Amino acid sequence: MYLFFLAQGLTFTQIAILEAIYNLTTLLGEIPTGYVGDRVGRRNSLLIGTALISLTLLGIGLSSSFGALVALYVCWSTGYNFRSGSEDAWLYDTLTDDLSEDEFAHVRGRGESVSLAIGAGAAIIGGYLGSIDLSYPWFVAATVTAIGVFVLLTIDEPETYEQADTTDLSFRRTLSMIRRTVSQRNIRAFVLYYYVLYAAVTYLVFVFLQPIFETVVLDFGVSQAQVKSLLGWFYAAYSLFGAGLSYYTGAIRDRLGLRLWFLGLPFVVGGALVGMYFVPVLALPTFLLVRGLSDVTRSFASQYINDHLETMGRATVLSAMAMISGLAVIPFQLGSGIISDIVTPLFALAVAGVILITSSTGILLWETPIEREPS
């Protein structure tokens, strides 16, 4: 993706601007689209989002200018807006139908595991397609995403949602629900700890993975012609590692608990980001580590927030969490893009690692971001 952008003549700053536009659109669109998901149904919201994403991927593969990419990034973000809160809301409510909502993280983790395992094969194919033409992976992604529209037509709304009276759910009332959720003790610190800080910093890892990977493998004597196919194989390993950890999401929660997981996470990741600046080859295992932790952590965060919500307004509140992340990541993106152009992407990630460690320490001194789970 970023090699494609660089091949179109974009600078790191322009790429960072695209990502900032994406997140600004997320900021403006998350709550309204979450409200749509609560009013017209989770499935309908997912259908709209998936169709829009498919068309956008096709458009990006055909584009060759920064201006066109700006417009397409707005559409891309809007598509994910329609999906972000409704996905987890649909799953949590479906599990609630069977009184299995405590299994949310476990089931979501298994789903992510299957997705990442399939993505491993797709990454290898994408690497070779990209070595022929960097537009081809976009076209294939658009086609596969379009299949999701037909899959969504086969699923039903959860009974828990259908039994909830959404006719009186006004937009003002959903905003009130968001305020009440975010103001709860522990939740407010958790939002800062995970959705503002950790999510923003780790997002930068995904932004700069490709150029840093290219720099590291070229230093090892790999030819420029081999970089794209090797990147596909690395993404395969990257996805499989994430799939392995995601598969055991439930077991990890049983062994460690959400509290211990979140309290240690920023310091492990932050330390790894700083370390790879001094020893660049550490970037490869660091990327694997962050990938593996990412989906497990997202499942745990969604479980924790969902446990504090009611069915009515669930999609809107979950979308609001994504909106908060979208807002928080904008200064990180713009700052890292400028630093990368002036120094290097490795240095930008090291700075982000320092910010993650110091800010997490400050939040912990103020208030514990996650309450103890009942024994």
Descriptive tags:
globular, 14 helices, 375 residues, mainly alpha
User: How many DSSP-defined strands?
Assistant: 0
User: In what range is the share of β-strand residues?
Assistant: under 5%
Question: Taking Cα atoms only, what radius of gyration do you get, to the nearest Å?
Answer: 20 Å
- CATH architecture level-2 label: Up-down Bundle
**Total number of domains:** 1
- The N- and C-terminal alpha carbons lie at a distance of 45 Å
Broad CATH class = Mainly Alpha
| Individual helix count | 14
Low-confidence stretches: none
What general form does the structure show?
A: globular
Provide the residue-averaged pLDDT: 84
| Helix share bin | over 70%
List SSEs in N-to-C order: HHHHHHHHHHHHHH
Q: What is the CATH topology?
A: Growth Hormone, Chain: A
Biggest sheet architecture: none
Q: Give the name of the CATH superfamily.
A: MFS general substrate transporter like domains
Structural class: mainly alpha
Describe the model.
With 375 residues, this protein is mainly α. The protein has a single domain (2-160, 168-366), classed as MFS general substrate transporter like domains (Growth Hormone, Chain: A), CATH 1.20.1250. The chain contains 14 helices and no strands. Helix 3 (42-62) packs antiparallel against helix 4 (66-97). The longest helix has 33 residues, at 187-219. The model has no long low-confidence stretch (mean pLDDT 84).
